[in-house]
Structure formats: structure tokens, C-alpha cells
Design goal:
Elements lengths: L2 H32 L15 H7 L4 E5 L3 E6 L2 E8 L7 E6 L4 H4 L8 H12 L3 E6 L4
Parallel strand pairs: 4-5
Antiparallel strand pairs: 1-2, 2-3, 3-4
Length: 138
């Protein structure tokens, strides 16, 4: 075996051993992640999880969707709030109809519930979103 063949063999062995250790590390990380207990939130920036919500007695949630939409869900239905994510750095911006336009701009299941929905939005969003009111006629 010449020196070139020897070098190739050494490098090949190192690569195979390296890949093996990477695979072991990935498997260990997956096992650690699976052992983490279930979450106990909703908090800012997290997606709505129907199963978790039902178990926790929460019947509403928010989900960020591409592109620049925040979807509110409760037993009555869903509603999409327009957002501005800009360069994807927080805080994001979410736009809600002004009080005098709320019932006109939202589906029937949200009529008369503006304060409740905005309270839920503020609780969920924390400091991850800035809430802006808009006049849909502008």
C-alpha cells in the first residue's frame, strides 16, 4: 500500500467513525427530547394545540400562519387577523378592526366579543406582538 492509499484509508476510517458518533449523538438528543414532559402553556408565539387545549380546559387558541396571518380558533369557528412580520424579528404587528367596525368585519361568532378576544390576544401574544387597531374604510 503506498502512502496515498494509506492516507485515503485513514481519512475514510475517520469519516466513518465520525458519522457513527454523529448518529449516536442524534439518537441521544431524540431520546432526551422524547423524555421532556408535556407543556403547560399557551404562551407567546406558541401554536394552538387542540388536544392540549381540551385537556387543559381551554377552548380557544392562536396560530401563526404563513404569510403574515394570525388565526384565532374557538368552538364557534376561526378568524384570521392580518399581521406584519417584516424581517421576521419580534415584535410582530397584528391588526384588529376598531371597535365601531368589529361586528361588520368579523364573523357572527365573534360579534359582541371584541373585549374578550382582545384580552385573549394580549394574554397569548405577550410582548411578541404589537396590537394595532385599524379602520377598514381607510
Amino acid at each position: 500500500m503506498n502512502s496515498f492509499q494509506f492516507a485515503v484509508a485513514v481519512v475514510g476510517r475517520a469519516l466513518v467513525q465520525g458519522i457513527g458518533s454523529v448518529m449516536e449523538s442524534a439518537r441521544d438528543a431524540a431520546e432526551r427530547a422524547a423524555a421532556v414532559p408535556d407543556r403547560d402553556w399557551p404562551t407567546s408565539g406558541r401554536d394552538y394545540d387542540d388536544e392540549w387545549a381540551i385537556e387543559s380546559g381551554i377552548d380557544y387558541g392562536f396560530k401563526e400562519e404563513w404569510k403574515e396571518r394570525l388565526v384565532y380558533t374557538d368552538p364557534g369557528g376561526t378568524f384570521e387577523f392580518p399581521c406584519g412580520w417584516g424581517d421576521f424579528s419580534r415584535p410582530y404587528h397584528v391588526y384588529v378592526p376598531m371597535a365601531e367596525f368589529w361586528d361588520r368585519e368579523t364573523p357572527a361568532f365573534l360579534h359582541g366579543r371584541r373585549d374578550e378576544i382582545l384580552d385573549r390576544l394580549r394574554l397569548w401574544a405577550g410582548d411578541s406582538y404589537l396590537i394595532h387597531e385599524y379602520d377598514p374604510d381607510d
